[in-house]
Design brief:
It is a single chain. The protein is α/β, with parallel strands linked by helices. Helices cover about 15% and strands about 25% of the residues. The radius of gyration is 17 Å and the shape is globular. InterPro entries: 5peptide_repeat, Pentapeptide-BTB/POZ_domain. This is Pentapeptide repeat-containing protein.
């Protein structure tokens, strides 16, 4: 698809069923569009605007997002695994049933009034400028703290999400929900334990105690 064709589709108000893997997109304005079943894997998106978009089954796997905007976007069942997000705003966005495994958020990333629910933040890296707080997490608890909810999320990913999980060699992973649940000691965590699901360092603090953004532990920073 050429950029002219893409802009024409955006002008119609709906962008669906596209594979844009590996493209470089700059200053593309998706504002207010319905974006469904679109693959941006390994893309570089610079200063792109997704404000007010309804986004479902969108994959940004291994993509680089630079100065992109998602204000008041509704993002569901979307894949941000291994994504690099640098200087972005998710102000008032609703993020549900998404996977940010090993995503890296760096620079100033605004999360004011964003709501994150039923979303995996497993091994996600939050830099100094990311102002994520407990109030951004629906119910104040990470997905992996509710093992039943996490199991449902893992099972439903293949039908409601972006599809079968693949490894770094683009091969189908030898992966199962039960194996994922036991990785990093999920099965042994207490219901009242708000530590990082892998090794116990990430904590989300209440507003009155949270004067700085949540910091990643040294293990996450080096993996």
């Amino acid at each position: 698809m050429t950029q002219t064709e893409l802009l024409k589709m955006i002008g119609s108000g709906a962008v669906r069923d596209l594979d844009l893997t590996g493209r470089e997109l700059k200053n593309i304005d998706f504002k207010g569009c319905r974006v469904e079943n679109v693959t941006f894997d390994e893309c570089t998106l610079t200063e792109c605007n997704f404000d007010g978009c309804g986004m479902e089954r969108v994959s940004f796997r291994k993509a680089a997002l630079r100065n992109c905007r998602f204000r008041r976007a509704k993002i569901a069942w979307s894949d941000f695994r291994y994504c690099e997000i640098e200087r972005a705003t998710f102000e008032e966005a609703e993020i549900r049933f998404c996977d940010l495994y090993r995503a890296m958020l760096t620079g100033i990333v605004i999360m004011r009034k964003a709501r994150i629910g039923e979303t995996s933040l497993y091994y996600a890296y939050f830099g100094e400028g990311v102002n994520i707080r407990r109030e951004n997490i629906a119910g104040g608890r990470l997905l992996q703290q509710d093992l039943d909810a996490y199991r449902r999320f893992l099972i439903e990913w293949n039908t409601s999400g972006t599809g079968v999980r693949r490894n770094d060699r683009a091969e189908q992973s030898a992966w199962s929900p039960d194996a994922a649940l036991h990785a990093g000691g999920h099965a042994q965590r207490r219901p009242d334990d708000d530590r990082h699901p892998a090794h116990g360092y990430l904590r989300l603090h209440p507003r009155q105690q949270d004067t700085q953004s949540v910091k990643p532990c040294s293990h996450c920073a080096n993996t």
